[in-house]
Records
---
Amino acid sequence: MLIKKINELREYIQPYKSDKETVGLVPTMGALHNGHLSLIKAAKEKCDRVVVSVFVNPIQFGPNEDYNKYPRTLDADYELCTKNGVDVVFSPSPAEMYGEGFILSNDNLTYVCPPFNYTDKLCGKSRIGHFDGVCTVVNKLFNIVQPDFAFFGEKDAQQLIIIKKMVKDLNIPIEIIGCPIVREESGLALSSRNKYLSDKGKKDALVLSKILQNIKQCYLKGITDIDALKETAFSLLNDNVELEYLEIYNSETLEQEEKANNNSRAFIACRVEGVRLIDNIKLGD
Ligand code: PAF
């Protein structure tokens, strides 16, 4: 079923909640691919009812980012969800979520702002306000759907860490489930933004996963010096790939540690053909 209105979604979900059925929410911005499908499968396995939200959230995009260009494929997304046993696709308009006229003025909205220590690095450094927008919409979706479980991909590892922190800090009674990155056979992490890449761009983009694999191999061979691990990337970079960041931080707190350890994660962001791509890998097995 496709639902576009908040009150209709609430009406639909209420009987399931009263019957004590478990509800799983998979929040997405649509343009669904096999990465999302793995979240849907995990939700289906764990929950009696599965809601997938499809909402390109305007407040998590900066003024020079791809909000208008972001792929919108609701018909295909809905079909994929139906085929895979999703009970409800919730796809509200920006006006439904933020009120009429919101697009003209966004300075009168209550935001949920995660702590600076979590957002002053990695994607948060170049995407100012991005995680405020993410936490705000995720909170709204949590309040609308009131799921028992919510499923997020590890590809957006900083987002997942920040959402877990928000849920803990705000005592939100929802269990957050992180699901492993899904990759093409080539190693490229699946992303809705891969659609913007040419075939050549997709080949160039393999540098991200190669750099991460290389760092992991070096760590497993015993290198724990963080600068030494990061330096292994430079021989793999080329002119077609513009590195935005490569960092190694604690997997749960995003803190900089003195030495890499089994709980460290390497994070990378690059631009390929002008498309911003991210990837990450846990160093320990
Ligand atoms: O990861 C995403 O697609 C989005 O950031 C999310 C969590 C759906 C919030 O808009």
---
Amino acid sequence: MVQTEEQGTHQELPTEFDLNDYLSKQKILVETALDKSISIGNPSKIYESMRYSLLAGGKRLRPILCLATCELMGGQLAMAMPTACALEMIHTMSLIHDDLPSMDNDDYRRGKLTNHKVYGDDIAILAGDGLLAYAFEYVAMETKDVPCELVLQVVARLGKTVGAAGLVGGQVLDLESEGKTDITAETLSFIHTHKTGALLEASVVTGAILAGASQEEIARLSLYSQNIGLAFQIVDDILDITATDEQLGKTAGKDLAAQKATYPSLWGLEKSQAKAEELVNEAIAQLDTYGKAADPLRAIAKFIVTRNH
Ligand code: GRG
């Protein structure tokens, strides 16, 4: 609470949650932990390639969501940090593979040359594989003060999230849909709930699991994360049209050039933005029972529809 002086008396005003301050502090914590998570080993080239992409910046939204949810459910930040790092390792490996010439063929990511442009396709594939394997090792070896059954639940959830039932399945359908003009809203929704939504949902759910949340709470938080996941992808599609290369840190306008079905191509820009806002409001409604403690998750949801990068 802040104090203001009004006619000689002090009146208490609720302080606004400062999202920018929160995100920049959490980002520093996550990046410090990521930097420590992998050191250069032998052969040095593969470790350098893994670190190149893992430490290339980005919003760090997945680890920040995991930490925020763990804290909301009464856990300590340290309990969730290894999983938070693992989520970013998985996210980064999916970006490295997505950028390959055989997939989206991108030269820039997070404002830097893509991994394969620096290290070659062969090392980029292996860097992705190395990060994926290490993510699981890291959760299993580094998670402290959490019952083993809960760590096992996290490992299982991460496995499901990256495999054919998650990111891999979404990516396959995305590749198969390219150039097709008859993609339905259902197919688009399948692609994005798997390709993008699954990892965002896992970020929230694993944070809750680690803190020992009940099934009821996990179900509520899943709903929150499913809504922000879809909103996130809709905004991603909008930004591909409206943002610059500099804002995105990668080539803008690629969806249009590849004739990809996107939410704006189905609904138009205005309706897509309105739908994203509606989803975020639904997400925020799931947090009503938690009061101010859920301010970080509320603010992250709002950030998803107001971001420009
Ligand atoms: C997971 C085994 C395995 C393989 C990967 C390539 C692939 C299979 C899946 C593609 C997943 C993908 C790239 C989805 C797009 C998700 C997305 C919207 C990325 C952008 O996320 P931001 O905006 O990026 O959070 P930053 O750079 O801020 O982290």
